[in-house]
Amino acid sequence: MFSSFYTAASGMDAQLKKVEILSQNLANANTITYKQQRINFQELMYQKLGDIQEGTGVKLGQTERVFKTGAMQRTDNPLDVAIQGNGFFKVETPEGKILYTRDGRLAVENGELVVKDLGKLNIKVPSDVSNVTVEEDGTVIAYKGKDKVELGKIKLYDFINPNGLKIAGKNAFEATSEAGKPFEIEPKKDGNAIILAGFIEKSNVNIINQMMEIVASQRNYELVSKSVESADQIARMASQMKKQ
């Protein structure tokens, strides 16, 4: 009898955690480059009751990020760049830590090309140039008077298992052994991702889909909670019959 309570309780807990993840996705629907999370459930082991196999509930499995490219939003700011395809920018923070991000809101600070509020891309920008922009293959160009000059090239990096990356805050991730070693991608070559200047990448959260999943999870929670009530009633009836 008590197994039914444990089975139902595991289901209720799983649905609550799912709603928590879905709510987090909705809260970040307008966050630049945010990648929605999805949760997987795993069935717990079965137990045999005579000729019947009875499940013992579910547990929270792996929480994954969906690294699908978000929609491109035009800003017409030449220092706003977006990655169309797979990959990350590699940045070095002021503390010397290496992070990876898809946030391409760039700026020129202290003679360096940087991702705002995050770190530098290790591309020098001389004080005597202007109109800095980035081409689709990552080449950073500027103008010295009327002359076009090349300042360097932004490269992209990817991982065998991006879901293994550690969240570092500010739209950035930290490499881990679980993610694998970062490997370099040359933008626009052999069908690789391209870098679009004048755009930012929006989150890939589908608001309608997430809201529908929340409603479904809430209904599942209600159904499971009713099964707990039913099990409780049956337990009381059995107890009363036993006393008689």
What does this structure look like?
With 244 residues, the chain is α+β, with helices and mostly antiparallel strands. The chain has two domains: 2-67 and 205-243, no CATH class; 72-201, no CATH class. 26% of the residues lie in helices and 37% in strands. The chain is built from two helices and 20 strands. The strands form seven sheets. Strands 16-17-8-7-15-18 form a six-stranded antiparallel beta sheet, with no helix packed on it. Helix 1 packs antiparallel against helix 2 (207-243). The longest helix has 37 residues, at 207-243. The model is unreliable at 44-50 (pLDDT under 50).
Please state the CA-atom Rg, rounded to the nearest Å. Answer: 26 Å
Number of strands: 20
- Helical content class: 25-40%
Please indicate the percent range of residues in DSSP E strands (runs of 2 or more). Answer: 35-45%
Count of discrete domains: 2
Tally of individual helices:
2
Order of helices and strands: HEEEEEEEEEEEEEEEEEEEEH
The average pLDDT value, as a whole number, equals 85
Alpha-carbon distance between the two ends: 19 Å
The largest sheet is: 6 strands, antiparallel
* Principal-axes shape call: elongated
Unreliable stretches covering 5 or more consecutive residues: 44-50
Structural class: alpha+beta
